Amino acid sequence: MSEALLRVDGLDLYYGDAQALDGVSLEIAAGEIVAIVGANGAGKSSLIRAIHGIERPARGTVRFDGTDITGWPSHRVCEAGIGHVAEGRQVFPNLTVLENLEMGATPRRARAAERQTLERVLEMFPRLAERRRQAAGTLSGGEQQMLAIGRCLMGQPRLIMFDEPSLGLAPTIVQEVFRIVRRLNEEGLTILLVEQNVMASLKIAHRGYVLENGRIGLSGAGGELLANDRVRQAYLGL
């Protein structure tokens, strides 16, 4: 595997006295899809929030492309090239689809190519092109997820972190979301995919980590983890 684009070493995170992450270490090489899977409450979203500067870890480091970004505020992390598609989509409901997308182009690194990026996003998501003047709050859940992904792409990230992108979506829309994740990776983006949908995420991941009670319990190639008896019994009901 090539040099890590993102490297997390010994990350500890607390909420008050409760420890959410305990010595978490992982790495993602440029061009990979890496899945973080585990049960609800395992610490998956806490890991995303710590990487993106929403929460400050008590110990450990986060390095992106060789630079220590531990504890940087979210806007600096975004400027560095890490995008975040948050759990629950979090679009601006009273703004139009187009205004939401334009909000995504606020990083300085993205402004020069904003028009070209917008054309790419609307080509990728024709439904958003049809509804560009519509208030985002009136879109379906699946359309809002596409908008959240498109808004993230407007910032021209090198790595995108997806936090539970399939949550609350119909099965057909879930399939479409994972197809989009795979397409983005094929186009050169590095992907960190945090998911409760273990089967779907490990099927498309090059590698995966199983997070259990704030610790990395298992790691390996996506196919290897899918074949692991412990994973199959605990998460797939097989």
3D architecture notes:
With about 240 residues, this protein is of the alpha/beta class. The chain folds into two domains: about 1-80 and about 160-238, Rossmann fold; about 90-155, no CATH class. It has helices at about 45-50, 75-80, 95-105, 110, 115-125, 125-130, 140-155, 170-185, 200-205, 220-225, 230-235; strands at about 5-15, 20-30, 35, 60-65, 65-70, 80-85, 160-165, 190-195, 205-210, 215-220. Strands 6-7-8-3-9-10 form a six-stranded mixed beta sheet, with helices on both faces. It has a four-stranded antiparallel beta sheet with strand order 2-1-4-5, covered by helices on one side. Helix 3 runs parallel beside helix 7 (about 140-155) and helix 5 packs antiparallel against helix 7. It is globular. The mean pLDDT is about 95.
